[in-house]
Write a structure and sequence with these properties.
Spore Coat Polysaccharide Biosynthesis Protein SpsA, Chain A, alpha/beta, 200 residues, two-stranded parallel sheet, 13% strand
Length: 200
């Protein structure tokens, strides 16, 4: 079990590694959607090269839709959202998401091992994709069914996993141990400095 301070530091490491991966994507604007409003200064100091954007909405699906809709209203033609709990996500996967949109996909999803998705990319607003219960083992399946009903062109990225549980954290540690090519510099340092084994 992690203390509150340890969990907070781990989140910061995850976020910094995610930002590092995003910085490798050229030819796009990097935007950090944050919450709560009081954390604006913290995120601005962490990523001064990213444009900050406040998340609004009560539920995850609503917040994702509002971020996407706002960016399309501002004139963006392709938007890819990635969560901050995948410090091991390769930059090439994010790049592949943009490539799929440029090739004509209307929706790009990165399936997650827990039945959700770790990445979503759109070429135009799709509010009906986000009025589903989020953070459930069925959300990916339900989203795929909705995409099929709407007749949208879909591209799926390689499956990955996000870190939500102690078991996920243990899985991540093993992955980083056996794959030294994965950058995740901050998360690797967190594991190296951990004075105990996190519960699996």
């Amino acid at each position: 079990m992690l203390s509150q301070a340890e969990a907070t530091r781990l989140y910061a490491c995850f976020l910094e590694d995610t930002l590092a991966a995003a910085r490798q994507i050229r030819g796009v604007e990097h935007i950090l959607a944050y919450d709560p409003p009081a954390a604006e200064a913290y995120f601005a100091s962490l990523a001064p090269d990213f444009r900050g954007m406040l998340q609004t909405g009560a539920e995850l699906g609503e917040r994702m839709h509002r971020v996407l809709a706002a960016l399309f209203t501002q004139g963006y033609r392709r938007v890819v959202l990635v969560g901050s709990d995948l410090p091991h996500l390769p930059a090439k996967t994010i790049r592949q998401g943009f490539h799929s949109l440029r090739q004509g996909a209307e929706v790009v999803l990165g399936p997650s091992a827990d039945g959700g998705y770790y990445l979503v990319g759109l070429s135009q607003p799709q509010p009906k994709l986000f009025d589903l219960p989020m953070s459930t083992p069925e959300v990916l399946c339900q989203t795929l069914e909705r995409i099929e009903r709407l007749g949208l062109r879909l591209s799926l990225l390689p499956e990955n996993f996000d870190v939500d549980t102690a078991a996920d954290l243990a899985k991540l540690r093993v992955l980083l141990d056996v794959n030294p090519a994965i950058p995740a510099r901050r998360t690797r340092a967190w594991f190296a400095n951990l004075p105990f084994e996190p519960d699996a």
